[in-house]
Structure formats: C-alpha cells, structure tokens
C-alpha cells in the first residue's frame, strides 16, 4: 500500500498516513516521542496513531507528536 510520506529538508521521512472510509492511520518514524504513540509496528522505530470516524482526538498531543518527529532523524527515502 502506498501512502503519503512527509519530511523536511535535512530530515527525510518522519510521518506517513493513509485514510480509509472509517479510519485514518498516522505512522511516525521515531520511537522516542513523548508520550509514545499507542500502536506498535513490526518495525522497531515506527509507531502508529489511529483516528476512527466520529472520535474526538487530543489535537495538541497530535500536533506535539508531529513537531517532535520532525526534529528527530528521519528515514532515508
């Protein structure tokens, strides 16, 4: 499955996501986020956060994860 992957200059990949009809999944490259996103991956340096349709999320925490991840070493594309 292909999905968008984001990075910034000097930090190649730090966030990916895919959207399905009832859920959005966000993939963070960085197991050192604080707090760590709740869902483990088969890859040791990857964590997931799922948002289900109709679910309220902590927008500040989500934005903080993105800001933390963009400052960490990314994965080469």
Blueprint (SSEs and pairs):
Elements: E1 5-8, E2 11-19, E3 23-29, E4 39-40, E5 46-52, H1 59-71
Antiparallel strand pairs: 1-2, 2-3, 3-5, 4-5
Estimate the helix proportion, in percent. Answer: 10-25%
Q: How many domains make up the 3D coordinates?
A: 1
How far apart the termini lie comes to 16 Å
- The helix-and-strand class reads alpha+beta
Question: Residue ranges: pLDDT <50 for 5 or more in a row?
Answer: none
Mean pLDDT over the full residue set: 81
Biggest sheet strand order reads 1-2-3-5-4
Q: Estimate what percentage of residues fall within beta strands.
A: 35-45%
Report the biggest beta sheet as strand number plus sense, adding barrel if it closes.
5 strands, antiparallel
Cα-atom radius of gyration: 12 Å
Count of helix runs: 1
Total beta strands: 5
**What general form does the structure show?**
globular
Can you tell me about this structure?
The structure is a single chain. The protein is 17% helix and 38% strand. It is of the alpha+beta class and 77 residues long. The protein has one domain (5-71). Strand 1 and strand 2 form a beta hairpin. The mean pLDDT is 81.
Tags for this entry?
five-stranded antiparallel beta sheet; 77 residues; 38% strand; alpha+beta; 1 helix; 17% helix
Short description:
The protein is 17% helix and 38% strand. The longest helix has 13 residues.
């Amino acid at each position: 499955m292909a999905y968008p992957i984001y990075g910034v200059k000097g930090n190649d990949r730090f966030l990916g996501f895919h959207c399905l009809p009832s859920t959005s999944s966000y993939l963070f490259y960085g197991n050192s986020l604080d707090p760590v996103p709740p869902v483990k991956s088969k890859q040791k340096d990857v964590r997931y956060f799922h948002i289900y349709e109709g679910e309220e999320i902590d927008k500040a925490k989500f934005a903080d994860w993105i800001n933390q991840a963009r400052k960490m070493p990314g994965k080469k594309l």
